[in-house]
Amino acid sequence: MTATAWQPLLLPLAVASPLLGGVGVLLLRHRPNLRESASFAGGLAAAVTVLSLWAVVGTDLRFEMWTWLPGLTFAFHLEPLGLLFATVAAVLWPITTLFSIGYVRANGLPRQTSFYFYFAVAVAAALWIAFSANLLTLFVGYEVLTLATVPLVTHERSAAARRGGRVYLGLLLATSICLLLPAIVWTWLLTGSTEFVPGGLLAGHAGTGVLAVLLGLFVIGTGKAALMPFHRWLPEAMVAPTPVSALLHAVAVVKAGVFTVLKISIYTFGLDTLDSSGASTVMMWTAGITVLVAAGIATAKDNLKARLAYSTVSQLAYIVLGAMLASRVAALGGALHLVTHAVGKITLFFCAGAIYTSVRKSRVSELDGLGRAMPWTFGAFLVAALSIIGLPPLGGTWSKWLLLQGTADAGEAVMMAVLLVGSLLSLAYLLPIPLRAFSRPAPPGAVHGEAPPACVVPLVVTAAACVALFFVPDLIVGPLGRALELP
Amino acid sequence: MTHLPVLQVLIPLMGAPACALLRQRRAAWTLFLLVTGGALVCAVLLVLRMEQGSVRYALGGWPAPRGIEYVIDPLNAPMLALVSLIALIVAVYARPSVEAEIETRRIPLFYACMCLCVAGMLGVIATGDAFNAFVFLEITSLSSYALIAMGKRRRALLAAFRYLIVGTIGATFLLIGIALAYAVTGTLNMADLAQRLPDVYGNRALTAAVAFVVVGLAVKMALFPLHSWLPGAYAEAPSAVSTLLAGVGTKVAVYAFLRFALTVFGGSLVFGLLPVGSIGLVAACAAMVLASAIACFQRDLKYLLGWSSVAQIGYIVAGLSLATVDGISAGYLHMINHAVTKAALFAAAGVLLMRLGSVDLQALAGLGRRMPWTFAAILLAGLGLIGLPPTAGFVSKWALVLALVEQGQWFVVGAVLGSSLLAVVYVGRIVEIAWFREPPETPLLRPPAVPMVAMTWLLVLMSLYFGLSPVLPAALADGAAVAVAGRLR
After folding, report:
1. pTM across the whole model
2. Hey, which residues does A64 pair with through a beta bridge?
3. Could you state, in order of their start, the residue ranges of all structural domains in chain B?
4. Is A108 among the domain residues?
5. Is residue A6 one of the residues assigned to a domain?
6. What is the ipTM of this complex?
């Protein structure tokens, strides 16, 4: 199958649609209903464009934008992993927009125009990252994503928001400037290129020692992947309004991080190079430790969003681990977990937002008996929690299964144990929440209902998607599996 | 066309007495505008001429070494264009700003000094004669002392006096160095010096000459630890002067250093036999880290920017001190990029000063939403100081880190990156104060002056353009570096 002349244009079109939506938001700032429609339309256009790219996923689409310096070009390309991430970001965005409309109106959030505008820029940056054809292009999108999300994190303008914003910006910029940028420059010096190449750009260009150091720079430098000890920004970013936490800190920002790690492992280092050189051992252990420690912290958190944040740190480390195992099955599992965790975690954040909107409660210990008042919300929470834990018949089953298979494939029995214990811990920190809500009696006098429909519908949709993912894993990671030459 | 090299300097030089004689503020301004425009035309024509090779021009028809010679080559042609361009932008910017800040009767003299300052800078760059370079550098410095002293606050006098003392010491050092070189070789023509000096490498007087010249120019470029004059001078000067000096003032001295080190003394002496490269790297690291750290604690926006300039000189010197083609190119590129970025920031600070009467950071509280254009400009240029894409600062950082990693200078890479993080802190402070505090009830002093905001944004857009498509500045920087490639070691 070959690409037609116009098909490469779909790549910049996908990146541009949220931006155009954002411009519409600015232009229509005095007409709230139209403004939100513009945001939604931009999201829908992006989603449709990205979905249409699945028809040509096997072809080698490439769109060159312009030459930056000799040998360095800003370019987009289409490959299965990037399309996977783009789909997650682009499809979940219109759903989040719907949720945001319900949330910001019910909670009377100020400065809604800038809220929707920066949201659109952030999604455009995420799509830019997803389609980047080389490290340089990716780095630019990565930094734009950081900068565009700062106003969202600090949207409340309170002292806590300012502090959260400082940690967020400080950690993400520090890691990317001090580690990721030198890593990219070093790669350029070693190979004379920054392109993503099937089989790995660095293959045959460096010894084990250099590869190990370089991998450390890349993986830790990708602060958005929230590997310990550079994970602090994620819990701090929870001061943001819940829709921001939902899309950015369950989907766009953190998934941009783990996507970058996966992409670099597969296309810059090459899984075979990592496997034969053993360069990824240290990072694998770091990820393993992060899985357990973050899960442990999550069980101790009473604030619902903080618990979800540490759960995210732990689950992200699963994906990093999938890349660092240097096994194709594990990388595939990581990629699938990127999708299933995104859908599950966004549902959980939607639920947290809906609970806050309806009853103003943000602590786990305050949720007793709410299940009967908000059956849809807590039902969705239960489904999404089970999916993240990895129980059938939900999407998370397959990603955890592939990751486990990957540890076996790589011969890392300890990591297999880590994954299993991590899942048990996730059982311990996620399940009590809906169980309390459904089984314990409600405190006397409290009568509440569900949040507004604009909040409830999205979370039911994403919960349904958790179920649907169980039945179609091959549709999602099949192309990537073929690209990785898996049977 | 053959007289372009001298017209380049002569046009602004003649503008100075004309401005002084006009005695009419608008007429003087118009003349300054025309003069800088004329200089830019000359510079652009000269840059285009570089494709046919270097231009040598004997002043008054007296051939070197009897007469003074102007030499335009790929090393200095881009600098001519840069200085002229920034001067022209400052000229457009200056009218409302100067009318608000300077006494009306002094305005013609102000523009006369500006003409002299620009003429001096262009002269240093264009000349091929060592003593002539000293003379022009002093023309620039003397006119800057006067310009800085015209600042509104009384502290401007102190800042100007301080600059005068330190600057004069620097100038004296430079003069002694040139005199020693003359004593050893018997010529002041740079090309002749370059030819005769290798025979006397190892001569103590020559070593002393190098030391005097390097230290003298280090004062003029405000290289740490000889930077003490800079923050005050930039902060207290009238806005238009700050913008011009912060844009290209120190870069002229950096260029002179390149010219003397490479094409006069020769890299094999300066960077090979003598440890100027290592000293430069150490000073650069100290400048990058310490000056950035000090910038974080400033209470006044213009002082903050001044300290940031000291740090940015460190980046430039770090690149040049490597004495490799990539290093020179990176340093040269950062000269261009930082000139645009820092000029934009000082221009924006001038807008604030005019509208608020103060650029104390506390006075900026909450103004981000009341003056969105000015603060957006500060934010974008600030990203350039940090070195984030898509600004020009990112290109410089890329080139500099590349050149440093290539030479295995990991320590310096650490200093560069550490300095960037400190830049995050001081730019972040401005942003936090401007956007996260409650806006004041008091109205602003004056309405915005369109030319000032427009020129600020022109500079910001240039910085963004050079960040997204750095082909032109990178080609100029590479051309300059390649032109001196044969004289590096």
Report:
1. 0.91
2. A75
3. 275-489
4. no
5. no
6. 0.86
